[in-house]
């Protein structure tokens, strides 16, 4: 079955996470993605764990992309990149503002040659304004936009030290929002024929995905009442068989406290002075938690417990490791985990795609996408752009093309490969 973006070509100048994830999302939707790497390669190639040239980090964000490795400082290289952009439906980059423009690859120049292009730039704080030139990584953007402070306020630490999150939310959410914007811009182009520039700021994304902004900026004093329906005050319990699980329903919040009373058949607790108000429940939270926990242990198993909790609209989620979820029945049935070649005879495990298409919602399993070696598709792509043997040889001799996967002699203007000396094809 054809995927939604079959026929769309994406040129991906980005590196590490936000931009590569955007382009990878488009690739998984069917687009042909060409990743353009500098001579030093994407930093994520050097991440651990890795085998040879391919790291798991690189494979997760780039498997299935074709690869052109080129030195944009060398004469002729910028024209190669521009010819790629001439054919592109989408260009993705996540450098600091102005970086690609300095190489003659900014939106204005690309769009002058290809007015239908959708060009998306992902940066920390946007292309304009006082913070446009700041370096930006997920932990710094998350600190600047309130996430770190909210985490500290909610959970705290006995030693008073701040902590950041274990995952790069700002990068991941920004990559996904960039992909959403690209899809909208492509739809606009289908209707009007016009391409356009898309500016994605990681800081703005982190505000957009924060479901409690309205509460924190309301100016209202909420006391001990939980401000939102979200996951800021989730109790953990131990199930009848020793299972650790979490409920998204706060024991303190007024909306959710009544759900626990309904599930336990304990309306009397509403009149207990320890639990009448959110402030009282907060002060006596250990006692309240113990009451619920003891009630949980009256059940024979999680199935019977979940049945009664479900009546009161209380969900539960077992605390599982990634190994547990990946090896379970659900992941196998959905196709939530896939493996790709590590280019060294083994495999790397990465996530599957998070959507199924088709009337029966069963997307056929595609051939596992292969993470490309740096410069692996140099000649193939140049020939697609119309370069002949002599022109490719000249680019090679001039040091524009980089293929470290073929050995150190094939870096930056080393000896011309035998296939080009003899006039052979790719």
UniProtKB/TrEMBL annotation:
This protein's UniProt keywords: Transferase
Example of a GO MF term: CoA-transferase activity
Stretches the record annotates as Disordered: 404-426
Superkingdom to which the source organism belongs: Bacteria
Residue runs in coiled coils: none
Pfam families found in the cross-reference section: CoA_transf_3 (PF02515)
Protein name (record): Crotonobetainyl-CoA:carnitine CoA-transferase CaiB
Source species of the chain: Nonomuraea jiangxiensis
